[in-house]
Amino acid sequence: MPSLPKGCFALGVALLLSACGSQAPGNAQTPASAPAPAAAPSLAATTQPPAAASATTPATSPDGQLTDSGSGDKYRYAIHYPPLPPAQAPLGAALRALGDRARRDFLAQAGPAAQHPTSAAYPWELTLDFKVVAQTPDLVSVVGQGGAFTGGAHGNPILLTVLYDARAGRTLALDDLFADPAAARRVLADAARADLLGRLEGPQDQRLGSDRKWIEEGTAPTAENYQAFALLADGGKARGLRLLFPAYQVASYADGVQHVDVPAAGFAALLKPAYRDAFATP
Q1: How far is residue 250's CA from residue 248's CA, in Å, rounded to a whole number?
Q2: What does the longest C-alpha to C-alpha distance in the chain come to?
Q3: In the chain, what are the domain boundaries?
């Protein structure tokens, strides 16, 4: 795939944090209407948060949603977590670990930001909202989306996904679902590539801001390209997978996150026996 711009990084086995910097990858074309922004600092810094930070204690709303928020003179952040039953405490801990990492990395950059002459008018800001998007007795799918404004012409989009095995009490990477992960990724890649290439057709104002090479590289069947995904489910069983492609992976920043839905029938034969009953198949 095209190299991600400076400031982008990925996390973990069952999740992806795409905090993309503000310049497109080598073969990406910044839309003519969008001037090339200045490069944004990476969120992956490891320095300590500034001493002046005044973080609030995470608060729980009446519906159980947990919010971690805080601010300094020239920055603010808010991270929202969904209400979860006690039995899903390991999932809650995994989400908090992700949110804490994003907050620490953001605050590590907030000290230098306070010295920037435009910071007072345009404060740095981190927002992140985790939501349960699908749930069955076997699996729970969570997507976290938001952004971090760290200077430049636009914010940096953030995308995280977590799939949780409710029976085993652990998070799962895409490969964990399949007996032959490489074969499964090839099947999913074929479906994603065909769908996205079709979006290059049609009226000019409706076409995806991309090209064949960009899509082929961004959908190549590597584990890196398929870190972000969600479950599709309507009831007791999952009916498929939603493959998520963050900004710049298969298209321009302006096109945002792209998704491709793959029905379970397309990959059911490749599932591990432990997960075959979790998906509805013909």
Answers
A1: 6
A2: 61
A3: 175-252+260-276
Residue 44: count of CB within 10 angstroms of its CB: 15
Alpha helices in 225-281 (DSSP H): 273-276
Question: Which amino acid would we find at residue 71?
Answer: S
User: What are 22's two structure tokens?
Assistant: 């503000």
CA quadruple 8, 9, 13, 14: dihedral sign: negative
Average pLDDT over residues 89-101: 96
Between CA 41 and CA 36 the distance in angstroms is: 15
In the prediction, which pLDDT does 72 show? 83
Q: Closest Cα to residue 138, out of 82, 63, 87?
A: 87
Say if residue 282 is exposed, middle or buried (CB neighbours under 10 Å; 0-12, 13-18, 19+): exposed
- Return the C-alpha torsion angle 266, 241, 264, 137, nearest 10: 160
Taking only the tens place, the pLDDT of each residue in 63-88 is 778 999 998 888 899 999 999 999 99
User: What's the confidence (pLDDT) of residue 113?
Assistant: 57
Smallest Cα–Cα separation from 143: which of 152, 151, 134?
A: 134
Q: What is the DSSP letter of 40?
A: P
In whole angstroms, what separates CA 149 from the centre of its chain?
Answer: 16
Q: Could you give the residue ranges of the DSSP H alpha helices within the chain? A: 89-113, 181-198, 212-218, 273-276
Lowest mean pLDDT among 28-32, 149-153, 160-164, 240-244: 28-32
The structure's pTM equals 0.78
8 Å CB contact between 246 and 29 = no
